[in-house]
Amino acid sequence: MRGTEAAMGYIEVGPNGEIALPQEVREQLGLKPGDRVRIDVDPAKHTAVLVPPRRRKAKDLFGILPKPDRALSLDEIDEVIARAAVERAKPA
Q: Domains of the chain: which residue ranges?
């Protein structure tokens, strides 16, 4: 199954709930070892859909955030980092 043909079939659920995706499915979804896949479940329809990770290049992220009002100095950046570290270290 290559190209635009949909890969469908049955897979077996293992004793611990694990499933193994057939190679053709992994290829069509572009999945690599270690990838995390989101599972969207629709209990009303008794269906589950695998949602592969979105792959973006760093250059595609350029301009995704608005420009700041002004640039921070290195001292201001250090201060913000220090404050965040103190907040993070506080007991919950």
A: 58-89
